[in-house]
Amino acid sequence: MRIRFYTFATALCVSAFANSCFAEAWVTKMFGETKHDFGTVARGSDTVFKFPIKNIYKQDVELLSVSSSCGCTSPSIEKKVLKTGQTAHLTAVFNTRTFTGIHGATLTVKMRWMDEGKWRNAEGQVRVDGNIRSDIVFTPGAVKFEGVDQGSPTEQKVTVSYSGRSDWKVVDVRGASDALEVELTQTQKYSGRVSYELLVRLKPSATAGYFNEQLVLVTNDQENPRVPIYVSGRVVPQISVLPEPLMLGSVSRGQQVAKKLVVKGKKPFKILEITSGDAALKCKTDEASSDKHIVDVVFDANREAGDVKIPISITTDLGDKFTASITAYATVVGDPVQPTAKDSSSAKAESDAGTAGVPNSTPGSVARQ
């Protein structure tokens, strides 16, 4: 009797372990990346990495929590519920102000989904590693340009402090894009202590939108010659358009739909031209110079039924760099069709066909295997 009980219990545990491992396999497919090495970074530097998590399955997936195996890394999740095709990010922050040396952490995401009226649970894991140098300190920990008006030059300064070898120095700064200018000035050197002032300037030619880049300080340290510092920010466009995107909705074939756009600027301007990627979409506005214009948009649905995506570009008298672009979306539908008698199996077949692009190995079906 004891042997039979032991065998049954063992089989049950092995089965549960196998199902868990199988579940982890489908969870891993949701992560675009599962490992990241921060490399060698300075103490006090803002060191962050985002792991994308995409729901490629039919069921909604709820991200419950995330934990870290080490205090050297603080994780967080920006979005809690993912519908099919949606993406969230697991953000990993390397705690360079409180830790030094070589560290790593395993980040565990707990999630669940509804399967046949029951909640199913699973976990996914990613890994981060890095080396935090105690002899190099950045103040502040990153270069951040937040809310800079397009066309306006601006700059930020970072102090680079080193303590150690008397002959240590920065020999180059690499990685600057066309939108950035970098100047490095040595401000202090004595008794093994060296300081630099790193000046990062954002050029007026910087393109509107968010950006996230990395500069690399190249030193004469043969063991760890490269030290990164992150540069991020947002350039606010001179010209903005609302709403963005322009949703035209469902339009019956052969009908028209009219909408309005509001085009704003930091200063008065003229709209010289409005072009679209489809002759069926017409735009009209005034010829005055103003910081606000109303654009009348008319879409003629004289085409086959289906989804429509049309780019719209707006050119102004402020120059080629100060333009605006948005996208208009519409769905052209045919004449209403009276429902006909169909059996339930036929309706189910059509429903299944509509999800043909979604993997069949959904979380629910995995859990039931």
Structure description:
- The chain is mainly beta and 369 residues long.
- The chain has three domains: 2-134, Immunoglobulin-like (Sandwich), CATH 2.60.40; 142-236, Immunoglobulin-like (Sandwich); 239-333, Sandwich (Immunoglobulin-like).
- The protein is 12% helix and 57% strand.
- The chain is built from three helices and 23 strands.
- Strand 22 (306-316) and strand 23 (324-333) form a beta hairpin.
- The radius of gyration is 28 Å and the shape is flat.
- Mean pLDDT is 84; it is low at 1-23, 336-357 and 365-369.
Number of helices: 3
Radius of gyration: 28 Å
Structural class: mainly beta
- In whole angstroms, how far apart are the ends? 30 Å
Q: Quick check: average pLDDT?
A: 84
Strand content range: over 45%
Just name the CATH architecture of the largest domain.
Answer: Sandwich
CATH class group of the largest domain: Mainly Beta
Shape descriptor reads: flat
Task: Determine the fraction of residues in helical runs and give it as a percent range.
Answer: 10-25%
Number of strands: 23
What is this structure, in a nutshell?
The chain contains 3 helices and 23 strands. It is mainly β. It folds into 3 domains: 2-134, Immunoglobulin-like (Sandwich); 142-236, Immunoglobulins (Immunoglobulin-like, Sandwich); 239-333, Immunoglobulins (Immunoglobulin-like).
